[in-house]
């Protein structure tokens, strides 16, 4: 940040089109400096190899970043056949080569077997922790540890094109899915080495990369124009049903108290009578009143 320029409170959501070749945190910090935002976070890491939609949260929006982590993600992925790498993607070292001996029909059959509920073992080259240490740190030391399989769902896995050595795919998947692991699994289903050679995230929940702005374009905007690109806090919460409270209930909610009549179990985005977001509330069968889970701070 330029000398003498102070951090300031900025609240909102920015849809960033992250370039490939940098980490999600590096992209976040560049955007944060452009806004001089005192507090910032993102809603799920994209690997350096990957480009595409990276929703960034500033200020009070960071309280709701977790709610978007559970959303389905959509990608356009490129898989390279005949070559395996130690990371499962193009950033890794080549560990095996093999001939390609399948056709488009066999590829489509393999894709069909990978749709729906699956168990997937997270890769060693990932940011997941084992006894407080990131798995990729252990992997770089040549250490491999047992990782429990995760239940994921591949909602869509559609072939875009196939050249014989590479294919492009549309992927829509549940949270926790590693697309590079999916590329390796596709190779295994075809008895062929494979790795993820390119990845672009096109959607996170209802958020679309078509509405995102690249870093270079963001830097060219005036401060006023950049502020105009910020979405309201509740843009992260559109998957939750809405509840509106009267003035007295809204005040109780802001102070951390349960409010309202019994609600069906679940999470809700909560507004006051004027339509201002108060936060996220939740109820369950044992405590059916709406209880504050995260509350927006007063500016």
Task: Provide the descriptors you would attach to this structure in a database record.
four-stranded mixed sheet, ten-stranded mixed sheet, Pseudouridine synthase, alpha+beta, single chain
Description:
The protein has 299 residues and is an alpha+beta fold. The chain folds into three domains: 12-70 and 206-236, Pseudouridine synthase (2-Layer Sandwich); 73-204, Pseudouridine synthase (2-Layer Sandwich); 240-295, PUA domain (Archaeosine Trna-guanine Transglycosylase, Chain: A, domain 4, Roll). It has eight helices and 18 strands. Strands 1, 2, 3, 4, 7, 10, 11, 12, 13 and 14 form a ten-stranded mixed beta sheet that branches. A hairpin with an 8-residue loop joins strand 5 (83-85) and strand 6. The radius of gyration is 22 Å and the shape is globular.
Mean pLDDT: 91
Q: Give a count of the beta strands, DSSP E runs of length 2 or more.
A: 18
Shape label: globular
Task: State the CATH architecture of the largest domain.
Answer: 2-Layer Sandwich
Integer-rounded radius of gyration: 22 Å
SSE order, one letter for each helix or strand = EHEEHEEEHEEEHEEHEEEHHEHEEE
Q: What is the fold-level CATH name, i.e. the topology of the largest domain?
A: Pseudouridine synthase
- The helix content, as a percent range, equals 10-25%
The CATH superfamily of the largest domain is: Pseudouridine synthase
The helix/strand class is alpha+beta
- Work out the oligomeric state of the chains in this entry: single chain
List the uncertain runs: none
Strand proportion: 25-35%
Question: What is the top-level CATH class of the largest domain?
Answer: Alpha Beta
Q: Terminal Cα separation, in Å?
A: 24 Å
Q: For the report, how would you describe the main beta sheet?
A: 10 strands, mixed
Tally the structural domains: 3
**How many helix segments?**
8
């Amino acid at each position: 940040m330029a000398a003498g320029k102070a951090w300031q409170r900025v609240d909102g959501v920015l849809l960033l089109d992250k370039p490939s070749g940098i980490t999600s945190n590096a992209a976040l910090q560049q955007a944060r400096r452009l806004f001089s935002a005192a507090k910032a976070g993102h809603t799920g890491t994209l690997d350096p190899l990957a480009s595409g939609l990276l929703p960034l949260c500033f200020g009070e929006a960071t309280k709701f970043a977790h709610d978007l982590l559970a959303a389905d993600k959509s990608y356009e992925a490129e898989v390279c056949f005949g070559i395996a790498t130690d990371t499962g993607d193009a950033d890794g070292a080549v560990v095996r080569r093999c001939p390609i001996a399948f056709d488009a029909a066999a590829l489509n059959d393999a894709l069909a077997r990978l749709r729906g509920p699956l168990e997937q073992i997270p890769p060693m080259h990932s940011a997941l922790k084992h006894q407080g240490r990131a798995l990729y740190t252990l992997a770089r030391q040549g250490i491999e540890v047992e990782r429990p399989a995760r239940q994921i769902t591949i909602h869509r896995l559609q072939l875009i094109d196939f050249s014989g050595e590479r294919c492009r795919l549309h992927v829509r998947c549940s949270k926790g899915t590693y697309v590079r692991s999916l590329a390796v699994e596709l190779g295994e289903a075809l008895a062929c080495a494979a790795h993820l050679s390119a990845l672009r995230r096109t959607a996170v929940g209802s958020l679309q990369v078509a509405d995102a702005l690249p870093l270079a374009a963001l830097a060219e905007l005036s401060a006023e124009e950049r502020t105009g690109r910020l979405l309201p806090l509740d843009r992260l919460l559109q998957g939750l049903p809405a509840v509106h409270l009267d003035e007295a209930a809204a005040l109780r909610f802001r102070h951390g108290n349960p409010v309202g009549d019994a609600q069906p179990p679940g999470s809700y985005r909560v507004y006051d009578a004027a339509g201002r977001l108060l936060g996220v509330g939740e109820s369950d069968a044992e405590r059916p009143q709406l209880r504050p889970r995260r509350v927006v701070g007063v500016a």
